[in-house]
UniProtKB/TrEMBL annotation:
InterPro entries: DUF72, UPF0759_sf
Protein name as annotated: DUF72 domain-containing protein
Organism: Pedobacter frigoris
Residue ranges the record marks as coiled coil: none
Pfam families: DUF72
């Protein structure tokens, strides 16, 4: 994932401090009470990583069987694979069967809307493509989590009406989180307020993307009592910094849980995905220890159930 990437020698100058809660967050959580057992889903964005052979995938695992192995370690995935084309129902059924046969938990696929809808048609005249997309992902059945609508960098506030109209026409029971990237959505106070109020009214979530070079996307606005966080780490060289960032997220999420947050979706990305499982496992460890989640830790190969020593990677 290259969004928000900065040169390695500039990372030390980035202020990773999380902003204060936004006004919509205060409204969303104002009258809620803490739930006893919030749901936690922690995962990556892809399963097809050869770098994970002999790390979490057995050495001779074929690429066709990577998903079978992935679901043994994680309880969810931010599914980017369906972004590039509208998936066939047969493919979704194949993935569902793999999850059903290999997972020991309530696994969720969180599929991204296909780019035909979001980037090519830009949400206009996208009814047919949307119907095809929804028909296919419905094949996930009980394994379907929230869908993720990512709009391009050039999809600015002049498209507000198109976004609102599109979201209004989606099935009301379809869980959706929206990620916006154009800077003006966040820089203009009136536009920002209008955006998050609209998402709240339609009961759609606002994805938060924590990337080094786009701190404005860490908007800290909850439009529903659930969060969908896309955390972009900076790799092995900056592992201590990334762990500290996870720690700060853990503290903020705790404050939201105390106010009534119900679900946490937390997906780990890195520009070099090789050691993303280590970053993910650290997240799982910290959330289990401090937030009361009960997400199984990753079982690293040849290192025992507690994972490798972080310094080895």
């Amino acid at each position: 994932m290259d969004f928000g990437k900065v040169p390695a020698d500039s990372i030390k100058d980035v202020d990773f401090t999380l902003p204060e809660d936004g006004q919509q967050t205060l409204k969303t959580l104002a009258h809620l009470k803490p739930v006893k057992n919030a749901d936690f889903y922690i995962g990556c964005a892809k399963w097809g990583r050869k770098e994970w052979l002999e790390m979490i995938y057995p050495k001779k695992t074929k690429e066709a069987d990577f998903l079978d192995q992935y679901v043994k370690h994680f309880n969810s995935i931010e599914l980017n694979a369906v972004f590039y084309s509208i998936p066939k129902a047969e493919l979704i059924r194949k993935w569902r069967i793999k999850a059903d046969e290999n997972t020991a938990s309530d696994f969720l696929f969180c599929p991204k809307f296909s780019r035909t809808i979001s980037h090519i048609k830009r949400l206009k005249n996208a009814e047919e493509a949307t119907d095809q997309y929804l028909a296919s992902i419905s094949e996930f059945g009980r394994f379907l989590g929230p869908c993720f609508l990512q709009l391009g960098d050039n999809f600015g506030p002049n498209n507000f009406e198109a976004l609102e109209t599109y979201l209004e026409k989606l099935p009301q029971d379809l869980e959706v989180f929206v990620e916006l990237r154009h800077e003006e959505w966040f820089a203009n106070k009136d536009i920002r307020t209008k955006l998050f109020e609209m998402l709240s009214k339609l009961k759609k979530g606002a994805a938060i993307t924590d990337a080094s070079g786009r701190r404005d996307c860490v908007h800290m606005e909850l439009t529903i009592p659930e969060i969908f966080i896309r955390f972009v780490g900076n790799g092995k060289e900056f592992q201590d910094s990334d762990f500290a960032r996870i720690d700060e997220w853990r503290v903020r999420i705790k404050s939201w849980l105390d106010k009534g947050l119900k679900k946490v979706y937390f997906f780990l990305h890195q520009h070099d995905e090789k050691d993303t499982p280590i970053l993910a496992n650290y997240t799982i460890e910290q959330f289990n220890k401090h937030l009361g989640s009960e997400v199984p830790e990753i079982k690293f190969i040849n290192t025992g159930d507690d994972g490798p020593q972080h310094s080895l990677f």
